[in-house]
Specification:
Distance between the termini: 20 Å
Structural class: alpha/beta
Mean pLDDT: 93
Order of helices and strands: EHHEHEHHEHEE
Helix content: 25-40%
Number of strands: 6
C-alpha cells in the first residue's frame, strides 16, 4: 500500500505565502496537526517512509512516526516545486496577471516556468523517476510505503498514479497533514483529513 501525506502548517501557510523550496519550519499548529495525524494513523502499518529534505516535511515525518521503528529516508526529488522569484509572495492569486495564479487555477496553461522556477515537466520527471526507482520496488516487495511531502510535489505523484491530465493537477487537494492511501493493485483511494 502507498500512503502520501502533506506536511503540517507553517507560518507561511497561514499567510498564504508561496513556500516552494524556501525551508520554512512547522509552526505550533503544524506540530499539533502532525501529532493528531500520528494518533489517527497509529494502526496503519508503514514499513518505510520517504520524505522531502525540507524541514517542514522532515519534522512532520518524525512526529508522525515517533516511537515506531520505521526508517525515514530523505530524497531530494521530493522537495516542493520551485517557484523561483515568486517564493515568499503573499496571496499571489490576488496580484493581477501573476503567472502563479495561472499555475494554481489553470495548471495546463502553466507552460513556461517563472524566472528561477521549475516547470511542470521537470517536476513530473523527477517525481516519476523517484516512483520508479524507490517506490515501485518497495511496493513490489509487499511493503507499505509512506511519502511525506508538499502540495504541488504530492499532486504530481497523484497525477501520475491516477493518470490524470495536467488540468486536474490540483484535484486531490490534500490539506496539511491530510493522508491519502493508494492500493496500486485495485486503484483504491482513501483520504484522511479532508
Amino acid at each position: 500500500m502507498l500512503y502520501i501525506i502533506r506536511h503540517g502548517k507553517t507560518d507561511w501557510n497561514d499567510k498564504y505565502k508561496l513556500q516552494g523550496r524556501t525551508d520554512i519550519p512547522l509552526n505550533d499548529e503544524g506540530r499539533k496537526m502532525a501529532e493528531e495525524a500520528a494518533k489517527e494513523c497509529r494502526d496503519i502499518n508503514f514499513d518505510i517512509a520517504f520524505s522531502s529534505p525540507l524541514i517542514r516535511a522532515r519534522e512532520t515525518a518524525e512526529i508522525l512516526l515517533k516511537g515506531r521503528n520505521v526508517p525515514i529516508i530523505t530524497d531530494d526529488r521530493l522537495v516542493e516545486m520551485c517557484f523561483g522569484v515568486f517564493e515568499g509572495t503573499e496571496k499571489c492569486y490576488s496580484i493581477p496577471n501573476c503567472p502563479m495564479t495561472v499555475f494554481f487555477k489553470h495548471p495546463e496553461d502553466y507552460t513556461v516556468p517563472v524566472e528561477g522556477g521549475e516547470s511542470l515537466d521537470e517536476l513530473f520527471a523527477r517525481t516519476g523517476e523517484f516512483l520508479k526507482e524507490k517506490v515501485d520496488p518497495e511496493l513490489s516487495a509487499g511493503k507499505d510505503v509512506l511519502i511525506v511531502g508538499h502540495g504541488a510535489m504530492n499532486s504530481s505523484i497523484i497525477c501520475q498514479l491516477k493518470k490524470l491530465p495536467v488540468k486536474d493537477f490540483w484535484s486531490a487537494g490534500i490539506p496539511n497533514c491530510g493522508l491519502m492511501k493508494f492500493d496500486i493493485n485495485s486503484v483504491e483511494e482513501g483520504v484522511r483529513g479532508s
